[in-house]
Specification:
Elements lengths: L12 E5 L8 H15 L5 E6 L4 H6 L11 H7 L7 E2 L5 E3 L6 H5 L6 H9 L4 E6 L5 H9 L2 E6 L2 H16 L7 E5 L15 H12 L12 H7 L8 H4 L4 H16 L8 H24 L1
Parallel strand pairs: 1-5, 1-6, 2-4, 2-5, 6-7
Antiparallel strand pairs: 3-4
Helix pairs in contact: 1-11, 1-12, 5-6
């Protein structure tokens, strides 16, 4: 059964996770950020939309396979509203099923303001997280026009240069660099540059500061444990429940708090309330996964 979004007159806050380079943890950030935000702010509806055809988010959040005739993002785009195709998924996060093929969707995305209008017509009242494809094409441009904030994961020098291309694009489109936020991902403090002994992460931070790019203080460490969660079958497993006690768990929590504050979605809850929310979300996730396995 499709779950309709909350009825509200206020505009949703839109957070885009985007990189023109693959392998920087983009979808991992988008999916787990949604789960942590939902745990931290139980009163805040969270909707995740994947603008690609990899269907990772479907496997992460889907409670069941799609039934014949059920809509996905392609149908919502054609109807100019996502209201009919939004589903309530795992961990209390809503999502829109991904289309099996992006060809028709891209053809309908030539106007970069289309997605902004679709989100407005959908009347979603909380937070929307958009996970883009690793490109700067039509759907990604639509996400940029709709965005309040654009998180740009950077894990190495190559992804830093790709972030530079995206920031230059924001300038050309007159959308403003101020909506971009660089976030360091897959950080390995053991990695040093040849000669001088300077750590790669320090070199990246120095260059980001030199270029004057807005950057979150929270970074995400490289973790074999998280990589195993991402490759879990039949669905990826969340950091919230399956990496508790790890450095990445606390970093993802801090990133969620930082993003919420940056979007002006209210002060973070007290430590006691926040911890209770995380515990409830983890318990809910365990019950849901257990139910799926039994069936």
């Amino acid at each position: 059964m499709v779950s309709a979004p909350p009825n509200a007159s206020t505009r949703a806050s839109v957070l885009v996770v985007s990189s023109n380079k693959g392998g920087v943890g983009k979808t991992t950030v988008a999916a787990n950020l949604a789960i942590f935000v939902r745990a931290l702010r139980e009163d805040l509806p969270v909707l995740v939309v994947g603008l690609d055809d990899q269907q990772v988010l479907d496997r992460m959040f889907g409670l069941r396979p799609l039934l014949p005739g059920e809509g996905n993002l392609k149908h919502g785009w054609a109807e100019r509203s996502l209201a009919r195709v939004i589903q309530l998924g795992q961990y209390g996060v809503h999502f829109v099923p991904s289309p099996p093929d992006l060809t028709l969707l891209k053809a309908r995305a030539e106007d970069p303001r289309t997605l902004s209008r679709i989100l407005a017509a959908s009347e979603w009242s909380g937070l929307v997280i958009l996970d883009t494809k690793s490109d700067l094409e039509a759907l990604t441009l639509n996400a940029y026009y709709a965005a309040d904030r654009i998180l740009m994961p950077v894990s190495d020098w190559s992804s830093l240069e790709e972030a530079g291309k995206a920031i230059a694009l924001l300038e050309r489109l007159k959308l403003g660099v101020d909506r971009a936020r660089v976030v360091l991902t897959l950080v390995d403090l053991r990695s040093k540059l040849e000669g001088g002994g300077l750590h790669l992460v320090d070199r990246l931070l120095d260059e980001i500061e030199r270029r004057g790019w807005p950057c979150y203080t929270t970074h995400l460490s490289r973790s074999p444990r998280v990589e195993m969660l991402n490759s879990s079958q039949p669905r990826p497993l969340p950091i919230l429940q399956h990496a508790r006690g790890s450095i990445v768990h606390s970093q993802m929590r801090d990133l969620a708090v930082e993003a919420l504050a940056d979007l002006g979605l209210g002060p973070p809850e007290s430590g006691r309330v926040r911890a209770a929310g995380l515990a409830r979300a983890a318990a809910w996730a365990g019950e849901t996964i257990g139910s799926l396995r039994r069936h």
